[in-house]
Amino acid sequence: MISEPKTPVPARGLHTLGEVMLDEPLRELLEFARATCGGPAAWRQRKLVEVRELLALAQLSGRLRLQWLDVAVDLRAVIEMRVPVPCLPKPDGALEIAPLAVLGVIYRQEVLVSPQPGFSFVQILAPGPVWSASVSGDHRQLLCLGTSLPVGIPLKEILLLTYGALTMQTVQLDPRDSAGVMNPAAAQWWTCANNLKKIPLSRAPFVVSSEAKL
Amino acid sequence: MPEHAPIIEVQPPRRAGGNVASPSAAARLPAFIAGPADAAAKLGALKVLTIGVGSVGGRVVLHLARLGLASLWLIDPKRFKAESILTHDIDPRSVGKFKAQVTARRCKAISPATRVFAGRVRVEDLPVDAFADADLVVLATDNLAAEIEVGRRCVRFGKPLVQAAVHGDTLTVQVRVFGNADQQSPCPACGFGEGEWRMLNDQVRFSCDGSGAALVQGALPTMSVSSLCSLAADLAVNQVLRVALALGESVLDTCLEYCGYTNRSVSSRLVRNARCPAEHARWRIAPEIKFLSACSPADLSRVAGFDPASASTAFAVEGFNWVESGMCRCALPQAVRCFVPEARQRAGRCSQCRSSIRVQPIFEHQVVSAALLGAAAGQPLANLGAAAARCVWLSNGDESVLFRAPHDQRLP
User: Which of A150, B68, B113, B193 has the fewest CB atoms within 10 Å, i.e. is most exposed?
Assistant: First the structure.
């Protein structure tokens, strides 16, 4: 007979990403990051923690694939995220939903000591043109995650915010409010009744079966 | 300071009826006990940079002008508001005007021999070497982001920092003196507790226009009484004198606190917080290089004593970003691989489709690693798009070196 544990087992969550055993290809990526990581010691250490959590999140969720990683100065990565992305190729055409986004992610040392603008972390490299109130309508396709992101925000939270913004599970559509609206025309388009009912594009959580994979 | 910076040197006021002879600052200077015999000369050679010239900093600089310093730099992006009259040493005619300019003109009128500069900019927007030529820095702002930035810059260049602050509710004045003797010295952020970090997050807001420049500071105005601000300024200037003239026991790395409720003052030591997230890095300043843009990053690495091929070596050219590649009408990104002036969103034309190559943030680097530069590290900066390079910063992760071209607008 198996006795009940005397103390409850803590629930696993994003705070335990550091404990996830990485699969071999991801371990190799982490080793690559270790070998090429630059900057002051504290920043190097922080970047490696963030990279490890990014890789663990990729393994757990199955939503992320790392295309490119550079940790020599900032932490820069090109990441494929499996997420519905609203696109409007023709201004008067129909909305198209792309199945994944290629994200350019920059995580700078400044994040350790000062709040950062919400648009300074994530750029959508593909697809385009993205039709979202929180994505700038210019060639850079900067994704705004809020008026200001707090000091020390972890990369995993930025990725979760990104997922929420692209699926439109979190949305800011008031074009009069400059805080959060990068594309006022898209904000107006989405506020029309016919379009509003398309929100959110998906209700699926970022990590679907975390317990099974843990 | 670079030429494009909105920093101006204030000229002496024109006086109706001819010039009034300006008194020598030494005319009222006491013979400080155990002080230097050449105190007036020492003060006359002193260059002080002041960040924040409001209710406390504005009074500090007026006192400093009366000491007949060599140079005074006043940095403050804000204007006087109607409420400023309640706490600042100003008259109603100043309302609506820039604090730095108005106060700088008063300083110049007090001490025409002092070179006085006014900057209507945030400290974050000052050139990277702005603190390098100052002898001492005074900080008097409620803006926590500015405190961190000033602390970081003072550590870099080993500049003593005198910080004055008030807490109106408790009638308390605090004057902290950071010696910045080495990288183990405390900085303003070392004293931040949870409350300060939370307040920092609340204070800073950005507009989502994508420019990155539209920073909105939500810092509350100083809630105090004019006399308390004045007391803070007086105590701060006393500490400046103690540091500049080495008067009495050293006040470096100390905090002087006066409480108006108890009429007690306490002096305590400031210590480095091992968990302080702010960078405590010391920069070496290399001798000026006349033709900086003729040097390659690899040349500068060797002069700095770094391995130019090492993956840990990194470079930054002030005013420029390294653009690795960009997008045009072609399907694939086009290599750019040169320095492009900051904020420029285009980097030449594509040789195939002839359209502009647009800069993508992910491939644009303010600091570029030697690994990314590759063979380009051997090319002169001028050939890499940075012919106007004025300042180049190099780091190998543990050490940093700053190279500068000669500049006639530097702190004199």
Answer: B193
